[in-house]
Amino acid sequence: MRYLGDKARLLPFVLRTLGRGGINVGSAHDAFAGTASVSRALKAEGWRVHSSDLLMSSYVFQRAYVVADRADPSLSEMARHLSNLQPRESFISRHFSPAGGNVSEGRMYFTPANAARIDVAREELEEWKRGAKLDDDSYYLLLAAIIEGADRVANTTGVYASYMKRWQPNARRSFEVVPELPVKGSQPAKAYLLDATDAARSIGQVDLLYIDPPYNSRQYVAYYHIPEILARGWTESGPAIRGKVGLLAGEEGRSQWSHGRRVRKLFSALLSATRATYALVSFNSEGHLEPEALLSLLTKASVDGEASHFSQQYRRYRADSDREGRHYHRDIALEHLYMVRLR
Ligand SMILES: C[S@@+](CC[C@H](N)C(=O)[O-])C[C@H]1O[C@@H](n2cnc3c(N)ncnc32)[C@H](O)[C@@H]1O
After folding, report:
1. Nearest Cα residue to atom 13 of ligand 1
2. 3-state SS, one letter per residue, for the chain
3. What domains are defined for the chain?
4. Which end of the chain is more exposed for a tag (fewer CB within 10 A), N or C?
5. How far is the CA of 52 from the centre of ligand 1 (A)?
6. 112-126 tens-digit pLDDT
7. Is 7 in the pocket of ligand 1 (CB under 6 A)?
8. Residue 326 above 90 pLDDT?
């Protein structure tokens, strides 16, 4: 899934940097896991991975792509069944498609046909779970596939902060549940639906802490509220939503890291809470924190007063919101990694 700040395209850079820093395969805490792309790559390299994030949608990806080790032989059959159920309108239809009429206030996130397919698939999966008809790994693999399948047919430019006013070609395709197969790991992994610093405290000693926080005022729970609703599921009344695009009403999932003035303090708290030997920090210069401020924080926490800096150019894709459609334009950005030895 396309996710702001995801590191999918930068994995070779991250792994190469660990090699250059002389950090051997061991145990890691990916503290701001997001799509779990880094956790997944570390697991494939043989690391014992702990991962955390505030969002349930991220927890689902962590469980599916990192914790799950094997796929049930009937996984594809279950996915086909979920894709081909008789569509039935429920929460997503009512609130995020024109099928909801006045209730959805004309929100055009999904066509009525896809919204009803997503609704029935999500509710059937929950029924299976309640009836103990599938194991945990299969549940999370299928739930991740529902979130990613819905994302492929979402009538957006990639984030859910707004929807397009005309149906885009991807939105007209049929919603499908296509699970990915889990990566086989040599070490068991653990996922935490928890604040990074709290997770660091409960995880204890690890070789590596990877830090990739939000650096600006975007709240991920507001940019990805529909994946989050799909991840959490709903009861009869559904979650409380508000505003023009149907954001989640509660405080759950909102991050302190998106408040510029608090980032330094939060960084220091995380670095004091962790018992990691090394910290690797992803940084881009478009956020609240100045590179000098980060460097000063890191060298203070470092055991030898030093921090190594690595950078790489990459092509970035940006949603082009000026035009109707999922157009992206490319530009060149610089991605930075800082590495420090903490003990
Ligand atoms: C830049 S993204 C991480 C991207 C990730 N490395 C990837 O490849 O997908 C930042 C993530 O931090 C999460 N986050 C924000 N505040 C957090 C906190 N206090 N503790 C843990 N995660 C948090 C957000 O939900 C978001 O998923």
Report:
1. 32
2. CCCCCCCHHHHHHHHHHHHHCCCCCCEEEECCCCCCHHHHHHHHCCCEEEEEECCHHHHHHHHHHHHCCCCCCCHHHHHHHHHCCCCCCCHHHHHHCHHHCCCCCCCCCCCHHHHHHHHHHHHHHHHHHHCCCCCHHHHHHHHHHHHHHHHHCCCCCCCCCCCCCCCCHHHHCCCCCCCCCCCCCCCCCEEEECCHHHHHHHHCEEEEEEECCCCCCCCHHHHCHHHHHHHHCCCCCCCCEECCCCEECCCCCCCHHHCHHHHHHHHHHHHHHCEEEEEEEEECCCCCCCHHHHHHHHHHHCCCCCCEEEEEEEEEEEECCCCCCCCEEEEEEEEEEEEEECC
3. 1-56+187-219+255-343 (3.40.50.150)
4. C
5. 8
6. 999 999 999 999 999
7. yes
8. no
